[in-house]
Specification:
The structure is a single chain. This protein is of the alpha/beta class and 428 residues long. It is 27% helix and 25% strand. The chain is built from 11 helices and 23 strands. The longest helix is centred in the first third of the chain and has 22 residues, at 30-51.
């Protein structure tokens, strides 16, 4: 794996500052990082067009040399995770998105859908070594890995990252609490990897059995909600348990450090936060859909729309890492719902916003009154103008083919949670 903008340089050859950072990439100046990423972007687009038939089609009218800025990147089309099932079914096995023959891959995983996920040969293809290092795992230690080792890639993701750090791995997989606890007690494992709540269950089982699990002082969790209550439970027992955000397609996207102030982006991704249903980038702090460009040559995903919500945090982490941070997983951006037999989608609400520039957030609330579906569009507007409300109601019907009411609210009234469609109907 090469550094973005540094062709032929092996990232693993960079000397680590043991105990502080995984490599020197993490402490680059933001200006140096952005320059390197944008320099790598043009070459990445050119390589994707040349070697992945999918991108040869969708980017056929794009000049790679001109894709050298975030503004230029934002003009490229999205590839949605939700479309992978159809793409792969139409052009198996990978929808022609990979840039090497399938037989040259190291592993092929199957995620629910099904979606087929490639792993190319290499020391740490999914790049979780960086996240595990930030958690505190070090060479010569033992990782107790409870992620699945079957069709889905999570187990391999953590194992590859730990082995890249020089660690032994216990491939425990999920389930069997007693065996998990006894293995940790016997092997004196140092770090846990798995879902946030499963570690608590293992520790409680160990306590019930009277086992000494004191060697386990750290944990790296993902794949579930890491709640404030769980954080407190671990902290009260002196455990350092940090989280990361990634997907089976992208590998690591962002990870937490001991500063515990947001998730720091991986060095091999370019992340945009866009208005749900569009490819339009949002300003810092606004909640929107996570869109990732993965600077990995074998699987050159460009503007990959994850369907997840997050927001960019201002400033830098107090831990000394200088990359951008996101707030973490804040829900799903896929908010389409059916009203009176017709789908209403976030793209349609975005179209209303485009037709009426100068407004703030828009939020369509779907509810039910006397067995009848109703829609109320709340719009942040500078003043309560009845004529504007009437025009918005007309546009809402034109765009969705459904009638709905409109209410104008003061700027800043609607929550900054990325939700543009809220369905309040309940199933009896």
């Amino acid at each position: 794996m090469t550094l973005p903008g540094e062709v032929g340089v092996d990232v693993m050859a960079f000397r680590r500052r043991e105990g502080e950072f995984f490599d020197v990439l993490e402490t680059r100046s933001p200006e140096a990082r952005e320059e390197a990423l944008m320099a790598a972007l043009s070459a990445h687009v050119a390589q994707a067009r040349a070697q992945a038939p999918y991108y040869a089609r969708v980017l056929q009218h794009v000049d790679p040399d001109e894709v050298n800025s975030r503004a230029a990147l934002a003009r490229l089309p999205l590839t949605r995770k939700s479309d992978l099932i159809t793409l792969q079914a139409g052009r198996p096995p990978f929808g022609e998105l990979i840039a090497i023959p399938p037989g040259r891959l190291a592993r092929i995983f199957v995620s629910p859908g099904p979606i087929y996920d490639p792993e190319a040969p290499g020391r740490d293809f999914f790049r979780f070594g960086r996240a595990l290092f930030a958690t505190g795992l070090r060479a010569g230690q033992i990782l107790h890995n409870t992620f699945s080792y079957h069709f889905t890639p999570a187990g391999a993701m953590m194992e590859n990252g730990a082995r890249a750090l020089g660690c032994a791995v216990v491939p425990a997989g999920p389930g069997n609490l007693e065996l998990q606890a006894r293995a940790i007690a016997h092997l004196r494992s140092h770090c846990y990897a798995g879902t946030p709540e499963f570690l608590k269950a293992i520790l409680e089982k160990g306590e019930e059995l009277g086992l000494d699990l004191s060697s386990l002082r750290r944990g790296h969790v993902t794949g579930g909600a890491y709640t404030a209550a769980l954080r407190t439970w671990y902290a009260e027992r002196g455990l350092t348990v940090l989280q990361s955000y990634g997907t089976a397609d992208l590998g690591l996207v962002a990870y937490e450090s001991e500063a515990r102030e947001g998730l720091i982006l991986d060095e091999f991704v370019i992340v945009e936060i866009v208005r749900p249903g569009t490819g339009e980038p949002l300003p810092e702090g606004e909640v929107g859909e996570v869109v990732v460009t993965l600077l990995v040559p074998e699987y050159p995903l460009i503007r990959f729309a994850t369907g997840d919500l997050s927001a960019i945090l201002p400033g830098q982490s107090p831990c000394g890492r200088t990359n951008m941070r996101i707030r973490g997983w804040l829900g799903r951006a896929d908010q389409a719902t059916k009203v009176r037999g017709m789908f209403v989608r976030p793209e349609q609400i975005a179209e209303l916003a485009r037709r009426f520039p100068g407004l703030g957030r828009l939020r369509l609330v779907v509810s039910r009154e006397r067995d009848h579906d109703t829609m109320m569009l709340s719009v942040e507007a500078p003043s309560p103008d009845p004529a504007l409300a009437a025009r918005l109601a007309e546009a809402l019907q034109a765009v969705t083919k459904l009638r709905g009411d409109v209410t104008l609210v003061p700027p800043g009234t609607l929550p900054n949670d990325g939700r543009v469609i809220e369905d309040l109907r309940t199933v009896e």
